[in-house]
Amino acid sequence: WSDLSSWHQFVCLINRPTDTSLVIVHGGLILDLTGYLLFFDVTRPVALFVSYFHCMNSQLFSIGMFSYTMLATSPLFCYPDWPRRLIAKMPCCLHTILPHTQPPQESAECIYPGRRGKAASRHGLRQKLGAIFTVLYIIEQLFLPYSHFITQGYNNWTNGLYGYSWDMMVENGSETAQLPPELQPIITGTVDDINITDPLVL
Q1: Which long-range CB contacts under 8 A does 48-55 form with residues at least 24 apart?
Q2: Is residue 199 a contact partner of residue 193, using CB atoms and an 8 Å limit?
């Protein structure tokens, strides 16, 4: 092995179909199954670090906003006060332009445990509009997944929401056409075509 470059060592390891299955397919499966680690305090930092594989997917595959959406929604698994704790650690010179970190104050419109709140005489326009909007939004979210009876047949003509579907990696044509040129020989098997002096490969 001493006379081979590190790149050729790597190619020899995954140059067989069985190796590709073990490394890429099963490795990706194990990586996807680590999502449950976000639920536990002890393993959450590790899971948040591993979730950055979405950055790699966004560069290797044309899957739209899926990767960025998954990264943006990762903090939902953290405690709800994480923005306040993060802002509190910022330098004092930035506290004037950042949101306040004080605990929320009591509101006259809320009912707290152990206290009797004043009964509202009547609901205002703001409360009514807020309730209507919330109900309509919930109905819309419940309806959209089952709306295929409206768009029967081939409903992928725009390919807009394809990046959010479970079969997002099943694309018409060759998947290797979407890969960077320096990575295509690994998938196609034409390893001899790789220029190991290319800085993009190294």
Answers
A1: 48/74
A2: no
Contact by Cβ (8 Å): 97, 111: no
Closest CA to 13 of 23, 4, 5, 3: 23
- How many CB atoms sit inside 10 A of residue 51's CB? 20
The predicted pLDDT at position 134 comes to 96
Which residue type does 76 have?
Answer: L
The identity of residue 150, as a single letter, is I
Closest by CA position to 163, among listed 47, 21, 17, 63: 63
pLDDT digits (tens, 9 = 90+) for 141-173: 888 777 666 666 655 555 555 555 545 555 544
d(CA 90, CA 154): 51
The CB density around residue 98, as the number of other CB atoms within 10 Å, is: 13
List all residues 6 or more positions away from 40 whose beta carbon is below 8 Å from its beta carbon.
Answer: none
Backbone angles phi, psi at 176, to 5 degrees: -70, -20
Q: Tokens at residue 150, please? A: 């409206």
Show contacts of 102-107: CB within 8 Å, 24+ apart: none
Q: Reduced to 3 states, what is the DSSP secondary structure of residue 175?
A: helix
Q: Look at 173 and 20; give whichever has higher pLDDT.
A: 20
Which of 175, 151, 149 lies closest to 62, judged by CA?
175
